[in-house]
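We emphasize that the prediction below concerns an isolated chain of 71 residues; any contacts that depend on oligomerization or on bound cofactors are therefore not represented. The input was used exactly as deposited, without trimming of termini.
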Amino acid sequence: SESDMERKEDVSPFSFSSHSNKKMWFVCENDSSHVFMQTPNHYLNGHKCQSCSNHKINKANSLGNANPNAV
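Result of the prediction step, given as a token string:
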């Protein structure tokens, strides 16, 4: 994952400590269409993309996609 500089140009990964609790934008390592806000502290402790970890609903992980006849 990389910090997403396009979202806020004046923010640099070098302006945060690795244990900072200030949120910044990240781009998912697995899917660049997944962009999320996270603190460097949480990110470095393994809390990565919410979509890929199924903590955020999207088309790929929704019940409707997994089982269209469920509803």
